[in-house]
């Protein structure tokens, strides 16, 4: 039993661990046909242009900083996106970013075909882009999710890659561990501008139904893409239906949805909401519980994850809160506790655990 507890605790620690470097996408394969978006920690979108990850790392993983130090490349990229600038500036960076987003949206719509919806997949914390230390990559998680969802959904999948930090592995050094715990909090902070950047993709996207399917900390990205949990002047999406599907969300139960109606739109969503919230929770998910027996900091520390593990029945409390505050906004709860202690995407997508959630996405 002691060996098992030690193993489980180390697994939790690996979830919480981090590194000083960020997850970078500058050297990705530009010829891949699968629709995808790549976003840096500040919410800027990667252009279709090869950028060395080492040079990005030297610019603090910021595309805006990289543009400032590589202004010739900035001018080349700008021309590629029909931005006829005569110099680099932060303002011009923002214009370029909007042009990249416009190009992404056109590309997504061009692949619509006979699909009836578009489904954005958003990964969680500590997902490497390139295989590292035996950990599953974000792209591997997406392959598993698509295999599960595409059996019933007639949809176009779009993979969302964001800087959610990555490192391996934890140690017995308590001081170092505290530093690594804080990296999870840094990833959570990144989720805010990433979500706000992603909102620009969702707005005026020419699909009647948009599914946003997240795992773990990806839920934080999704929330910031749909309403103003933080200050933002960006309009919120007005598609006929937006299904927000949160699998094992690494979210606070009592704070995440307080500003659910803080949106910028002309829709009368309080009368008939175009958002539909689906939450898959797991009482036993020990990564979200962050505790095995007496070991671990618990769900409140180093990012509040109480919602995804239904801490003290908080999921039902949230439903009651919706019934009182957001009367015409659907919220659907799915008990995924049969998954057991595992937090991996592969565990949630196996053995039909998500079948009921998928059925509701179809309705």
Explain what you see.
By secondary structure, the protein is α/β, with parallel strands linked by helices. The chain is built from twelve helices and seven strands. It has helices at 2-16, 53-58, 63-69, 71-80, 90-110, 138-149, 174-202, 218-226, 286-289, 314-325, 345-348, 355-362; strands at residues 36-39, 117-122, 155-162, 209-215, 241-247, 275-281, 331-335. It has a seven-stranded parallel β-sheet, sandwiched between helices. It is globular.
User: Gyration radius, to the nearest Å?
Assistant: 20 Å
The order of strands across the largest sheet is 1-3-2-4-5-6-7
Instruction: Give the overall pLDDT as a whole number.
Output: 91
Treating each run of at least 4 consecutive H or I residues as one helix, how many helices? 12
Shape: globular
What share of residues are in beta strands?
5-15%
The profile of the biggest β sheet is: 7 strands, parallel
Low-confidence stretches: 1-20
Cα distance spanning the termini: 45 Å
Give the % helix: 25-40%
The tally of strands reads 7
Structural class: alpha/beta
**Run of helices and strands:** HEHHHHEHEHEHEEHHEHH
